[in-house]
Amino acid sequence: MTDSWLIIPFSKLPLASGNGINPFEFPDEIFELYSVPAYEAGKPEVVAGKEIGSNKQIVSEGMILLCKINPRINRTWIVKSGSGNRQIASTEWIAFSHCPALMPEYMVLPIF
User: Fold this and answer.
1) Domain holding 62: CATH number?
2) Per residue in 64-89, pLDDT tens?
3) Contact criterion met (CB below 8 Å) for 22 and 79
4) Global pTM?
5) What is the dihedral of CA 35, 37, 41, 44, to 10 degrees?
6) Full residue range of the structural domain in which residue 24 is found
7) 26: which residues sit within 8 A by CB, 6+ positions away?
8) Beta bridge pairs of residue 94
């Protein structure tokens, strides 16, 4: 099976771009927020736009988030199907677009 695997550097993966949002402009909307502090809980925060004080990026199911702060700590997240609220992520994540040739679960395995 591994004979058919491709090795692709991160620099060749499709980045999500042009999808910024200021949740504060939507004060009563409830968002699912993929933040670095929420990572430890294993699920995004559910929070109103008026409680979010900075710009975020819109994400969607199947996207891979790679934390760009403190690279010694392995923080990778797969955006799961949501509850119907818009899904957003902190700009502390590098967001990779969904790619059919990529197995997101492989990218989030711990590195020892």
Assistant:
1) 3.90.220.20
2) 898 888 767 778 888 998 789 999 99
3) no
4) 0.81
5) -20
6) 2-107
7) 49
8) 66
